[in-house]
Amino acid sequence: MVRDGGSNMKRAARVSQIIAIDCNIHQLQLCIRAALAIDECISSLLAKCKQIATHFNHSIIAQSELKGFQERLGLPLLSVIQECPTDGIFIPNDWLQLESCATILKPFEEATKTMSSSEACISSVIPLIHVLTCTLENLLRQNINNTGQTCGNIIQKLIEEITNRFGDLHNNKIYTIATYLDPKYKTKFFNEITKESIESELISLCQDQEGHGAQAQPQIQSFEHDVIQHNQHFHHTDTESLPSTSSGANFSTGRFLQSMLSEMLASAPNSDDEENPIAPIDRFLILKSLIINYIKEKRIGLQEDSLLWWKMNPKYFELYRAVRQYLSAPPSSVPSERLFSGAGLVYDELRNRLSGETASK
After folding, report:
1. In this predicted model, what pLDDT tens digit does every residue of 135-151 receive, in sequence order?
2. HSE-up (13 A, CA, CB side) for residue 150
3. Residues with Cβ < 8 Å from 90, sequence gap 6 or more?
4. Model confidence pTM above 0.85
């Protein structure tokens, strides 16, 4: 179960004996809040921004004047907001500080959007957090073009918060097995000890299926049906939700993390085609051979569908049970929150007695 960090939600999962994980996007936002709160100047600037935003959101006259101002300047989006006597006033240095903060937080926006996608899987968390940490470390070394100690402190705090909140992911089999079973990533982000631990877990899980060989074909058919349903939705999504692999991406494109992740995956060998598959002797070696052969397969691109890959490779059907279990959970609760928001738009005061069938239409 994917849940927020509320104590009541944690207790509900514990009492119900349900395996649960935190919403990873919620955890990222907590990292950002903690980092921005360490500097009084930045906190003051953000308070001014909120004050101005609140003013324009509650004043139709202000919105109209702002729109007219944008049209006269021929700008689709105005970065400098018209001064209001009741709001805080920015000095030039304030804008530079906000611009630096926006640069620091741009990778977090990209990670948030990536994990908010309805096609996102928990398998993307470890790779994204790894790339996000590397990006912050690079920014710390550059110190955002030497703009000052404030930005360096914020970056350092972000790294600390990410380490505290996500540092134990490599010891959590829910995340590690999901990443291992995703043909986009496999073993790229694991050391040998973690890799061996994951493979032991997979073999144990597969050995539990021993004696159920007659059910293999129905499992394949059922799995393919699930994937077909997934693909029908996947291929109708906006192409903007798909990650870009362009090496020329930067912060301004909103695809920096995906570009960096693509380069990391491309730098590692995809497979070892010269080795021959191991000849299976007993049940353990059969499963071990299956896993080794899976790892030897070439990794797919970031823009490709992982579940479609599993559908097209039924020779690994003995791993289907693990795939069903570990490639099913999303990394955040955003998709379910969107569902509730959508239902709230349907069931209003004038449509509060719709049947479930009518509402779904």
Report:
1. 999 888 887 555 567 88
2. 17
3. 45, 48
4. no
